[in-house]
Amino acid sequence: MRFDEAYSGNVFIGMNSTYEESQAVIYGMPMDFTVSFRPGSRFGPARIREVSLGLEEYSPYLDRHLEEVRFFDAGDIPLPFGNAQRSIDMIEEFVDKLLADGKFPLGLGGEHLVSWPIFKALKKKYDDLVVIHIDAHADLREHYEGEPLSHSTPIRKACELLGPENVYSFGIRSGMREEFQYARDSGMYMAKFKVAEPLKLVLPQLVGKNVYVTIDIDVLDPSAAPGTGTAEAGGITSKELLHAIHLIADTNMNIVGGDIVEVAPAYDHSEQTQIVASKFVREILLGWVK
């Protein structure tokens, strides 16, 4: 892909840099081939960009403006529809390129399986990689009905790749009994139901670490984000997730990238899911890109 011609449609608001000059690169992963309930998250990246035009470029939370961060929107990776393995390989190759060029990768999904190739790419560069996982679902299955490539498996794969002690999950409120048993027995960290409060306790342990953050939009209560494939009642508010993003920004971790996944615009005609996701992207750019 030629980065200077990667995307001809809408770009995220405030894009102010060429690829070569950028600190951070936004990229989309339009994949929803393995979902277990409702498809449609492949349309999430494009719609997050489109609704971002309604945002202000200034964050009153961080007292920063998008003009202070050099970022480039590379558009969506042209993934082959229906081919999960080839899509995973292409995402890994794409992120390999970003990391080789010293960019902060900020991915937009797409189903949560798209985070798996990112973990693999980052592990090649950062041997001590830690993952912070914010989600309604444990995503610790080994397979879904016999298929190991599933949006319900990426965090189990992360535990196997990085070591479970390097995986921290927050906001979890859904999963098989076996997934919660694995979390207890493996040594990974899992905080059920809440995000900001347990995050405050954990973040001091991660100072100086290389940390990647993956956020599934369904960690929010369906009243705040109905536009997702597998909505789960009992979630957190958008205010709490904003607070969590700012807590991460305020630490001395080396944040090496992040993603927001599982926005499925077709299920939210009010567009509040897309709108809140775009605001999270703005706060991540301003808070995590140093």
Automatic annotation (TrEMBL):
Its cofactor is Mn(2+). Pfam families: Arginase. Pathway: Amine and polyamine biosynthesis; putrescine biosynthesis via agmatine pathway; putrescine from agmatine: step 1/1. One of its GO terms (molecular function) is metal ion binding. InterPro entries: Agmatinase-rel (IPR005925), Ureohydrolase (IPR006035), Ureohydrolase_dom_sf (IPR023696), Ureohydrolase_Mn_BS (IPR020855). It catalyses: agmatine + H2O = urea + putrescine. Keywords: Hydrolase, Manganese, Metal-binding, Polyamine biosynthesis, Putrescine biosynthesis, Spermidine biosynthesis. The keyword Ribonucleoprotein does not apply. PROSITE patterns: ARGINASE_1, ARGINASE_2. SUPFAM superfamilies: Arginase/deacetylase. Binds 2 manganese ions per subunit. One of its GO terms (biological process) is putrescine biosynthetic process from arginine, via agmatine. Mn(2+) binds at residues 112, 135, 137, 139, 216, 218. Its EC number is 3.5.3.11. It is an enzyme of class 3 (hydrolase). It comes from the Bacteria. PANTHER family: ARGINASE/AGMATINASE (PTHR11358), GUANIDINO ACID HYDROLASE, MITOCHONDRIAL (PTHR11358:SF26). Belongs to the arginase family. Agmatinase subfamily. Catalyzes the formation of putrescine from agmatine. This is Agmatinase.
